[in-house]
Structures are given as structure tokens and as C-alpha cells.
Amino acid sequence: MPLPHSNNNSNEDLFMIQAARDAALKAARSAVRDTTRLTRLLAILTEPGTTEILLDKTLSTLSELFVADVIVLFDPIGTGSLTPLASIGLPEDMLAEPFSYPYGGCLRHVMLEGNPAQLQGIAACAALDVRFEALQVNIAACFPVYGEDVVRGILVVARCRPEPLAESEMDLLSTMAYRIGLTLDDTQRQAQLAQIIQCGNTIGSYLDKYAIVSAATRYFPPLAGADSGAIMLRGPEAALQCQEQFGLSDASTEPLMQLAEHLLSQGKVTTGKPYCSTDRSLLKVFGIFSCQNYAIQALLAIPICQQEKIIGVLIAFRCMPFMFNSIALQMSLLYANYLSVALENARLYQIGQNELTERIKAVEALHASDERLRALIRSVSDIIMILSTNGFIQYSSPAAEYVWNVPASDIQGKNIVDYVVESDRERIMEMLFKAEKQTKATDLHGVVHLSKTKTQCLTHEVTLVNLLHEPAVNGIVVTFHDVTERNLYENELAKLAFQDPLTGLANRAHFMEMLNVALAHTASLGQGVAVFFFDLDGFKQVNDTLGHAGGDEVLRTVADRVRCCLRKNDTAARFGGDEFTFLIEDISTEEQVVPMAERLLLALQAPMKIDDKEVHIGGSIGIALGHPNKDNRDTILHKADLAMYQAKKRGGGNYIIFQNKMSSGR
Q1: Tally of CB atoms within 10 A around 350
Q2: Beta-carbon contacts of residue 437 (< 8 Å; ≥ 6 apart)
Q3: Separation of alpha carbons 560 and 551, rounded Å
Q4: Each residue's pLDDT tens digit, 127-167
Q5: Other beta carbons less than 10 A from residue 114's beta carbon
Q6: Angstrom distance (rounded) from CA 122 to CA 146
Q7: 3-class SS of residue 162
Q8: How many Cα atoms occupy the beta-carbon half-sphere of 530 within 13 Å?
Q9: Which of 75, 315, 427, 557 measures 20 to 30 Å from 252, CA to CA?
Q10: H or E element at residue 613
């Protein structure tokens, strides 16, 4: 009798082993399928092309891979509304109107809580939006689309058949929604930078204050993704006055001024500090409505500053309760700086115009003075001077007072070299010599630096016109146009375009450019490059515990430690979120990168002090070696990314160097 009992046990053991093997094979196939799908989707987002084309391709691929009938992408933080940014399966007549956003609704819940949700049944999906009822949608899953700091949008994936998305599919779509969010961040930053440059050049070309204000008010709401806007400037009695409004009811003028004064008096808007809010109680108090009589639900207020003083407030409104993100705040501050410079240029120009007009009226009876003023009017200027051939100042316009803080009359009789930095004195005298030799009244142009104080100089574009032959002038007319702030803003724009504003490291675009350059350079030397791709371990828990401000401090601390681990010519970048990349040049073997990887892991292991709390965080590093004429930037990054995910699978806190056997998936 014992023998049959033993056989039964063996059969049961064999059955259990086979079941475990089948389950493992099924899980492995599912993991490979999920990795393949994610790799395919990520490859689409890195392809060249416009954002519209990339999003269409991405949503089409999602529809195919997840067997979805309807997919809709919203970007309310970027656009200010729930009108679809991109969609698959929605008829054209359903695209124009925004989706509903009721209290307690699924879309509002996903935006506020930042967690995915799945609805089942036609009735539940219809509660999401009535359009889904018309399309007979049975399953609708909503995923938060995270940007760098907040949930900026929602991805809706819907099926008409009653088959819910599996948990693994929900996880995979959440990851994809996050990557889409980073793409939308990059797109918003690049688009707003381009708009700022274009709008700044336009308003900077005007010399009339009201033309500047009118154009700036029209341009600002679309730039910030808002529905309406206004500009308030301080009047002669220091009170704020509404200069222009766009998209608001006529009755909003007085409430706008009261709102701006409230924000300044309460310290919500200060020099260099913008303010944004979706506090409906605050907005309701001042009773501001759009032209369509919609209530205002989101506010953005930007200080307009000159010489560290607030001269006005630039305001944008949204009719939906979507907060403006940090990118919009940064770009709006930059736009306000452009506006400030344009207003100051218009003021100085008006002062010059008024001065010239008064002088013409005062000396109309004197023919010689009249001719002199006519010649000055013909040479458009900020600071106007008449110089002798050896540089002595015969006349200076009052605009010079704003540079040297002395009356223009005190400047006359002195030599221009006394007001030019030492390194430019020879240049200005050479320009005077060339102007003297001009036989025709043609312009000479150059750039010099005028000394404002012993430690400060201002950059000026200089125009010289020889009017020695004009009896009423008998000198060389020199105009100085201050381009100091313009150069600073252009440099700042270039910095924003290639640097991550949070950590000061290179951004994604600059890193990709440097990788291309490195591959070309090493090709000529017969060397290779190494790319480190690492992701912080446990960063989400840090954000949940310390908040986004604490998370930002962790990212800055990691960036500082990264800098200490790299060589002088290596490049470090924040790739997005809590992902970082390094570019190591002149690498030929794997052994060369091991000390760097170990040094980096050791630096990350040291505890951080954030808000008096000790924080421990590590990183998972993927390393890929690239060889000239064999790898391009995309393949190297892809390999490093695959290696990083292998490091993650091993529990984090380690590094893995890419091997060819990893090419099939993560």
C-alpha cells in the first residue's frame, strides 16, 4: 500500500512543477511583450519631426498595441483648456468643444490626485463625457501626464468592448504618459522661447508706449496658454492704472486695478517673484469676467521691474482651474523683462523727442541753431553728442544724464575718451579719424563700452556721421544706443535653451548636441565614448515625503555630487525628471568606466540633509560604450537605457555595462 501513495505524491509534485514552469513562461512572455511595446513607443517620441506629428504617431501606436478604439490627450496646464491636444478615434465634430470637468468627475480626480483610474460600463464612461456614450465606449482608463513638477495633462485610453485593461497594461500606459509629459515640457519651453523672441523683437521696434502696451497685451495670453490678460502700469501719482486689457469684459477695468494693488500690498507679487493661483475666493472678490461672461478660475501675475523697482503688473487669466506651471512662470518673467526694456526705451526716446521739440521751438528765430537742430533730428539717437575731430564734446543731449548722473552741460568741453573704458579708447579715436575722412554724409558703425562707474560699464552701439561741412554743426555727430540689457537677455535666452534651470546641468537638447560632437571628434582619433544613464532609486518616495520643494533640493544636491565625480571635459545633463546622463570621451575599454561608476555610486550613497531630515537615496546606472562609424547617439542612449533598467531589476544601487544580449529587451 505505501507504494501507490508514493506515486500519487510524485504525480502531484510533477503537476506543481509544470504549473510553476507555465506561469513563469507566461510572465516572461508578458514582460518581453511589455518591454517591446514600451521600447517601440519611446523610439517614436525621439524621432525627428513636429510635436503634432510625433503625438499622432504615438497615439496611433498606442491604439494598435493596446487595442484601443479611442485615445485622447489633454494638456490643460499648457493650453489652459480641456480641448483635445491630440486624439485617435474622435470624429472631427467632437474635437472643437472642451471636455467636461465637473466636481467629483474622473478627469478632475486624476488631475488633482495624480493617480490613474479605470471606468467600466457605458454609463460610467458617459459620466466622463457624453461623447463617449455616443461612441459606445465601455472601458475608459485615465492616466496623469506628469511634467517636470506637476501633473500637466491626462491621457484617456478607451475601448468599446467590455474588456478592462490589465494591471500590467495600466502600468505600461502610466510610464508612457510620463514620457509624453516630458515631451510636452520640452515643446512648451521651446515654443514659448521662440514666441518670446518674436514678440520681444516686435514690441522692441515700437517707440510709442501705447503701441508697446497694446501689442504686449495681445501677445501675452496665447504665449502663456491663457484666455485673457491685462497690463497695469504706475501713473504719475504712483497708483496702478489699467493700460490695456484683452479678452475681458469692459467692466473689469476697475477690479483689475484693485486686484493688482492687492497682490502688491500683500507681498504676493514682488521684484522677480511671480504669483499664480486658482483660489476662486480671491478671484470672486474682485468680480473679473471674460468677454463671454465666464468666471475667472486661474490667475498669473508677473512684476514689471526697472532698476529693482516694480513699475507695473502683467496679468493673465484662465477660465478653467488649471494652474500655470514653472515653465510658464519662467517664460513670463522673461517676457516681462522684454516689455520693461521696450517701455524704458520708449520713455527715453520720448524724452529725447520732447527735448528736441522744445529746443526747436526756442530757437526758431535763429537760423544757425535751427540748422543745427535739424541735423540732430536726422541722426536718430539715445545719447546724442557732437564731437570735434580730436574727441572733445561740443554738445551732449540730456539723455547722457541717465548714464553719468550729471547735467549734460557739465559734460561739454571734456573729451569722449574720459567716458570710454580704457580698452576702447583707441577704437573710438580711430572711428573719429575714419569719420573725418568721409567725404559724404555716410554713417560709420561700431560698438564701444561707456564707463558708468569705476566698476560698471555699459555696451553701446555707436553711429558716427561727419557733419563738419554743416556750418550749424561743424562737428561729428555721434549717437550711442545702449544694448547692455538686450545682450544680457539674449545671453539668458541662450542659457535657458541649453541648461536645465533647476540643477544648472546641461539639458536634454544640449546633451544630444554634445554627444553628436563627441562622436565626430573621437572618430578622427580612433577612440570611443561612454554614456552613463542613471535614474535615482526611491525618488518618488522623497517627493511624497518632502514635497516637490524637497525633491528639487535632492536633485540639486545630486547634480553637485555628479560634478565632483566627472573629469573636466566630461558632460553631465539632467535628461528629465530624476534621470541623468553623462558623456565620457576618449574611452576605449570597459575597464576605464568602472572607477567612474563606482565613484558615482559612492557619492550618491552619502546621506543628504534636506529640511533638517536625513535622506538616503541611491541610483541605478546603465553604461553603454559607443564607437565611431558604428554607433549613433540614439543607439548609444538606447543601450544605456536598457542597461539602466537591468540595474533597476537587480534592486538598484548598482551599475551595469550594456552587453549585446540585452538588445532584445529589458
Answers
A1: 13
A2: none
A3: 14
A4: 888 888 888 999 999 999 998 778 999 999 999 999 999 88
A5: 12
A6: 28
A7: coil
A8: 26
A9: 75
A10: strand 613-615
Computed over every residue of the chain, the mean pLDDT equals 83
Cα 655 to chain centroid, rounded: 32
Give bridge partners of residue 70 from the DSSP assignment: 158
Phi, psi of 14, rounded to the nearest 5 degrees: -65, -40
Residue with cell 539639458: 507
What is the value of pTM for the model shown? 0.49
pLDDT at 528: 86
Count of residues in the chain: 666
Round to whole Å and give the CA distance between 621 and 305. Answer: 45
Q: Shortest CA distance to 157 belongs to which of 79, 92, 61, 76? A: 61
Coil vs helix vs strand at 137 = coil
Three-class DSSP labels, 452-521: CCCCCEEEEEEEEEEECCCCCCCEEEEEEEECHHHHHHHHHHHHHHHECCCCCCECHHHHHHHHHHHHHH
* Cell representation of residue 300: 498669473
- Asked if 399 and 352 count as a contact pair (C-beta separation under 8 A), the reply is yes
418: burial class by Cβ within 10 Å (0-12, 13-18, 19+)? exposed
pLDDT band at 379 (very low <50, low <70, confident <90, very high): very low
152 and 187 in contact (C-beta within 8 Å)? no
Q: How would you classify residue 644: left for phi > 0, otherwise alpha for psi between -120 and 50, otherwise beta?
A: alpha
The pLDDT tens digits for 290-299 are 666 677 788 8
